[in-house]
Amino acid sequence: MLALEAGALVVVTDSGGVQKEACFCGVPCVTVREETEWPELIDAGWNTLAPPFSEDAVVSAVLASAGTRGLATAGFGDGTAAKKIVSILQACIGQADPPRSAALVSV
Fold this sequence. Notes:
Layout: H1 2-6, E1 11-13, H2 16-25, E2 29-31, H3 39-43, E3 47-49, H4 55-65, H5 81-95
């Protein structure tokens, strides 16, 4: 799927995840919906909403998006989430009581 998106001139979807994937692939996207959970993609010029009420409006949005490029966006973090999570977990473990030996009970 990602190879298809990366090779597309425009991605047309109603999927929230595919909107983001298109941006990651550097391909403009037309989302056939009235709203999106990723308004930052619209602000950056990677995504265009085309409500599914008019075939002409959807076709116009696709044609207008072809060959366009959005702005570089850092709306998806800085790539250091894993390091931050490990640091937080290490801090929590350091503050926790040491594990206690479990007593074996014979029945």
